Amino acid sequence: WTDAHVAVWLSEIRCAHLAATFRANDIRGDVLLELDQMILKEMGMSSVGDRVRILNGVKHLRQRCSA
């Protein structure tokens, strides 16, 4: 996925405000599925709610990819 794809996905999981953070940290499709709590904290995400939404979204993406 490109930055634009990631931004759309972030919008879908109610985290559109983090698109610039993902872009600044080069989080695109090739690494999106590798995100975990530690990486999100490293990226400066202090909101537990945002981290949970992202990790749940990543979990759903992994399930779609394996199906």
From TrEMBL:
CDD domains in UniProt: SAM_Ste11_fungal (cd09534)
Cited SUPFAM superfamilies: SAM/Pointed domain
Alphabetical list of SMART domains matching this protein: SAM
Domain SAM: 1-64
Pfam family, one: SAM_1
Gene3D superfamilies in alphabetical order: Transcription Factor, Ets-1
Domain of life of the native organism: Eukaryota
InterPro entries xrefs: SAM, SAM/pointed_sf
Protein's UniProt name: SAM domain-containing protein
Organism: Trametes versicolor (strain FP-101664) (White-rot fungus)
